[in-house]
Amino acid sequence: MRLLLVEDEIRTNEYLKQGLSEAGFVVDIANDGKTGLHLALEQAYDLIVLDVMLPGIDGWTILRHLRESLTGRHTPVLFLSARDALSDRVHGLELGADDYLVKPFAFAELLARIRTLLRRGPQREDDVLVINDLRLNVLARTATRNDARLHLSGREFNLLCLLMRRQGEILSRSEIASQVWDMNFDSDTNVVDVAIKRLRQKINDPVPGQLIHAVRGMGYVCELRS
Questions:
Q1: How confident is the model at residue 184 (pLDDT cuts 50, 70, 90)?
Q2: Where are the alpha helices (DSSP H) in 96-172?
Q3: Which of 15, 47, 28, 20 lies closest to 154, judged by CA?
Q4: Which fold has domain 2-120?
Q5: CA atoms of 154 and 63, how far apart (whole Å)
Q6: CA–CA dist 43, 29 (Å, integer)
Q7: What are the coiled-coil residue ranges (predicted)?
Q8: pLDDT tens digits along 66-95
Q9: 31 near 11, Cβ under 8 Å?
Q10: Strands (E), the chain
């Protein structure tokens, strides 16, 4: 899942991005309101974490524009703010925010609130992905094949999640690198191919049979083939 974090405190941005990335999310960041609004309107996000007091354009205005647009009308938004007055919290919720968390906060609480919003969101994706005997629980971050537990690294789990969510769709190496590694793909690196090879080996340990297939000159696809 892809999140947008709009926060003008650089150290807070870095801390939250690292923690959310380790929790399995792909995170884009913006350090000012103008950039945050542009990203929120131009990109598809599963959830937006939004500070209220921002340089250029404040969080209230960003949310107002977002709710008026077709692309961001249903995107869950969680406000972060040092403004803890009841009137501020009510104002944020009335504008269309889904939650409001007052600074300072514990990262564990932020993560729990994000997961709660994603579970109940109107456009929520499935929590459990299944292809034949391969089963992946997104929230529990567990994967099994033929009921045998797969021991995946965080990156391998994210890679498998992407492939399974886009079942039957050929994903290019550049798109996989962008979604899983949050980086631009360099044709001179084989990071995607190496990761796919390791993931295939782990998936096929309990049960033989390929579910991830290479498509020559195009990329990779996850699907059951007869």
A1: low
A2: 107-120, 154-165
A3: 20
A4: Rossmann fold (3.40.50)
A5: 32
A6: 12
A7: none
A8: 888 766 677 899 999 888 787 888 888 888
A9: no
A10: 2-6, 26-30, 47-51, 77-81, 99-102, 128-131, 134-137, 142-145, 148-149, 212-215, 219-222
Residue position matching structure tokens 């919720």? 93
Rg from Cα positions in the chain: 19
Annotated domain spans of the chain: 2-120, 128-222
CATH 1.10.10.10 assigned to 128-222? yes
CB-CB contact of 33 with 62 (8 Å): yes
Q: 189-226 pLDDT, tens per residue?
A: 788 999 999 999 999 866 767 899 999 989 999 998 76
Structure-block tokens of residue 89: 């919290």
Distance CA 67, CA 97 (A): 9
